[in-house]
Amino acid sequence: MTDVHKNRWLSRGLIALGVVGIAVLVWLTLRPSGMPAGIVSGNGRIEAVEIDIAAKMPGRIADITVNEGQFVRQGQVVATMDTDALQAQLAQARAQLAQASNAIQISEAQVLQRQSDKAFAQATVRQREAELNVARKRLARSSTLSKEGATPMQERDNDQAAVEGASAAVAAAEAQVAAVDSAIRAARSQVVGAGTNVDATRATIDRIMADINDSVLRAPRAGRIQYRIAQPGEVVAAGGRVLTLIDPSDVTMVFFLPEAVAGRVALGDEARIVLDALPDRYVPARISFVADVAQFTPKSVETSSEREKLMFRVKARIDPDLLRRHLTLVKTGVPGVAYVRIDPNVPWPAKLSNVVKD
After folding, report:
1. Could you tell me if 334 and 40 are in contact, meaning their C-beta atoms sit under 8 angstroms apart?
2. Among 228, 252, 237, which residue's Cα sits nearest to residue 53?
3. d(CA 333, CA 277)
4. What Å distances lie between residue 23 and 28, 39, 111, 237, 264, CA to CA?
5. Sign (positive/negative) of CA torsion 96, 209, 240, 299?
6. Which of 14, 125, 139, 319 has its CA at a distance of 20 to 30 angstroms from the CA of residue 177?
7. Backbone angles phi, psi at 346, to 5 degrees
8. Across-strand partners of 255?
9. 340 with 37: CB under 8 angstroms?
10. What region does 314 belong to: left with phi over 0, alpha with psi -120 to 50, or beta?
11. Exposed, middle or buried: residue 145 (CB in 10 Å: 0-12, 13-18, 19+)?
């Protein structure tokens, strides 16, 4: 046999070996650990919803009232921030509120005073109008008598001057009424301005009170304190984390499946999780998430050969009712294997028939 034929047969043998290897790899992927077709699995770790309890504003931590691992109820006070500066701002705002309220009273008193001035000015107008009316009647009589020669013209001229003077007095009194009206409008504007200052100051007080209330850090939901990130006396920035809380009633296992398998996994599919710490029992779960983009699996989850493949991230959510009955036993980071039944007609094997008991 020539070298050419030998190389040709060698090449064909290597190709056949590769095909067999791929077939074996696919078979192992679809039927891991002796699982029947229709049940696939992936390695993963237990994860829980993590919530950061952070300071809304920059400041110094006054006290932390919980420790790592401690269970807390929703709304429980877990830490407090120093509020000395806020208390000083609150005292200043309350003083400004009192000042603005006094300004309203002063402005309202000025309105009343200007209204009294207006009443006096209107009375003066009526008085001047009455004097003008008398002067006009006197002028009319003197004009008639002067034409008949009964009175001298000088008297008639004096009455004419008196009418003109009375007319000027009426005009002056009416101008005084107009001036008082302007003063009343100005005083009422001051009342409105003082009321606006009161509203603005009250809004400032409400904001400061909200900041003081936010300085008391509370658990947003029931759970377990995972980490104390900061300590009393430390200064944190706005949004600086103080504690991390996990919700043990919302726990999933994150694992990875290849494309050929992930495409057949649907939300709500039944899954069973076997933890390394409990190899003889499974934990019931449902598929709650399947990524729509493939990624390389992380080093902490898969072997070096599997990290070279693109995989889809999948989450299996553990039965919440079961978790609530075992809150104290929930631990994050625990490794295990998640089994997913992608064919509902395939029965679960005996290996996965021993459920974690209540």
Report:
1. no
2. 228
3. 12
4. 9, 17, 97, 56, 19
5. negative
6. 139
7. -90, 125
8. 44, 314
9. no
10. beta
11. middle
Query: In this predicted model, what pLDDT tens digit does every residue of 331-350 receive, in sequence order?
Result: 788 888 999 988 888 888 88
Collapsing DSSP to helix, strand or coil, 267 comes out as: coil
Q: Rounded distance, CA 296 to CA 72, Å?
A: 37
Cα 275–chain centre separation: 38
Structure token digits, residue 239 = 């949004």
Gap between the Cα atoms of 176 and 121, Å rounded: 6
Q: Which tokens in the block code for residue 235?
A: 């200064």
Pairing mode of beta strands 59-64, 235-236: antiparallel
How far, in Å, CA of 109 to CA of 92, rounded?
26
| Structure-token pair, residue 108 | 């309202």
Written as one string, the DSSP assignment of 65-100 is ---TT-EE-TT-EEEEE--HHHHHHHHHHHHHHHHH
Indicate whether 11 pLDDT > 60: no
Closest CA to 261 of 7, 12, 32: 32
Structure tokens at 56: 């809304």
How, if at all, do strands 295-296 and 77-81 pair?
Answer: unpaired
Residues 6+ apart with CB under 8 A from 328: 71
pLDDT digits (tens, 9 = 90+) for 54-98: 999 999 999 999 999 899 999 999 999 999 999 999 999 999 988
Listed in sequence order, the residues at least 6 apart from 340 whose beta carbon sits closer than 8 Å to its beta carbon are: 39, 40, 41, 42, 257, 265, 269, 270, 271, 287, 314, 316
CA dihedral 224, 229, 233, 239 (to 10 degrees): -100
The Cα 139–Cα 145 span in angstroms is 10
Continuous segment of H or E residues that includes residue 188: helix 153-214
Q: What is the pTM of this model?
A: 0.62
